[in-house]
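As a representative case, the lines below give one protein's residues and C-alpha cells.
***
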Amino acid sequence: MGGMPVSALAIAGFASCDYEPIVLKEILRGAVSSLNRAGAVLIGGHTFEDSELKFGLSVTGIVKKDRILRISGAAEGDIIIITKPLGVGILSTALKGGKITDDEMKPAVDWMLTLNDKASELALKADATACTDVTGFGLLGHAYNMVRDSHIDFVINSNNIPILDNVLQMINAGMVPEGAYNNLRFLVGKVEFSSAISDERKLLLSDPQTSGGLLITMKEENIKAFKDSSLFFSVIGRVVKGSGRILIE
C-alpha cells in the first residue's frame, strides 16, 4: 500500500513432540532475515503449543496518508500489470506430492523471497490508481476485489500472464491445491472466460499464491517508471467501462 515497515511481532504455533527446536529457530532466522531486508526489526512475539506448525508476523509501519495505494480506484483506460509470475501454489503441491525436486522448486522459492518493496515504490512513482497483492485468492480473486461494486471491468489477456516453469505440466499431472478449486467456485458469475480458455488455465489463474507479486493499475503513459527499472513486470490487461466483472481473453 506504499507503506514502510518498521517493526514486527512474531506468533508461532509449535508441535514440540513433532519437531526439534532447530525447526523453530530456522523459521525465526528466516523471518528476521526478511524483516532486515525490508528495513524492519523483530521486537518480540508469542509462541503456543499446537499440533500444526503455524507462523506469522504482525507488522507495524508508516505511510503518507496522501500516498496510500488502495485496492479501489482503477479507472477506464488504465493498464493492468503484475510483478511476479504465477504458479507457486501448484508447484508447492507438486513438491509435497513428490512430482518435482527441490532444485526444480528453487525458482518459486526465490520469487517468494523477493520483497514487493521495489514494486510498491515504482507504483507510487507511476501514480498507480489502484494496487493489491496476489496471494491466497489467486490472480482472479484479487482482481475481482479491485473491481467489485464498481463501474469498471478488467479485461485480462491470459497469454500475457507470466508463469513459472513446470506449472502447466503439474496442472496436467493433477497437482493443483484445493484452494484453486475453491477460488474458482467462488468466482462463478463474476468472471467471464473466453471459449479459448482451458480448464487448466482457469485453475492457474485461481492458484493461491504465497508471497505473490503486486497487481497494479495505472495510466499507460506512466509505465515508463517500470520500463526504466530492472524490476520484472508484465502488462496483462486493461480497464474498461463495465459493471465489476473480470473478462479473460
Summary: The first strand starts at residue 4 and ends at 14. The longest helix spans residues 21-37.
